[in-house]
Write a structure and sequence with these properties.
about 250 residues; alpha+beta; four-stranded antiparallel β-sheet; about 40% helix
Length: about 250
Amino acid sequence: MKHHASDAHTLAAAYVLGALEAGERDAFEAHLRACDACRQEAAELEATAARLAAAVAEPPPASAKHQVMAAIDGVRQLPPRIPAPAPAPAAVGRLRRAALPLALAASAAVAVLGGVTVWQAYHSRDLTQEARQAQQQLDAVTAVLAAPDARTVHGRAANGALTTVVTSARQNRAVFAAANLPAPGTGKTYQLWLDHDGTMRPAGFVDHDGTVMLTGNPADAGAVGLTLEPTGGSPQPTTDPLLLMTLPS
């Protein structure tokens, strides 16, 4: 799919994910050499994608290997795959564009759903619900990351955790991701807050490295806070903030 020169500023996400055609990639790389804003956006998107992938990884249970190996003899072999006809060249660009929102969250999807797939044969009812919830979360996160007005800011909490917030004013949503977040300890949890002119309002929880959609209304908030609270959360912060990060404008 071809783009006019004026569209170059919208291609940072597609470039980071390798979704541009060869000619478009070369043109955008030339554009990057002259555009500080796009260079910064591409760097932030690349860092965010890597951080989200690490943040949502869920290792399978220790007993998974034993159960899989025990059941392998009863698994029917799949028929050979027959390659589908290659799409017409004119359609390749359209297919890549259609796949872009999924590609933005692909690393997160593999991490979240990969462990679920192995266990679904043994606990299908519970894990189908978990998979559905994980997919809903991924859809919501993807929508924010792929939004044309998505803005990103990075920070570091007082306990050393690396954090990323991506906002979309058009969707009035914000995504929070944490990596290297220490365990909160028995009876404790990490609670997120939205700072509305000095009033801290609850915005959800993140118990470990992970990616969550902030609850509440980020439209009028100036910052995102993170505190350590008793399990179940608090109506107002009870400890000093580990993080108070200004939201991207």
